Amino acid sequence: MYTAESTVRAAQPVGNHSYEEFKELTREFHGCAAPGLLIGGYMVEKARARLPEGTLFEVFVETAKCLPDAVQLLTLCTYGNGRIRLAETGRFALALYDKYTGQGWRVFIDPLKLRQWPEIETWLLKKKSKQEQDSDRLLEEIGLAGEELFGIQSVGISERFLEKSSSGPIAPCPGCGEPYTAVDGPICRGCLGQTPY
Ligand SMILES: [Zn+2]
Question: pTM score, two decimals?
Answer without folding.
Answer: 0.89
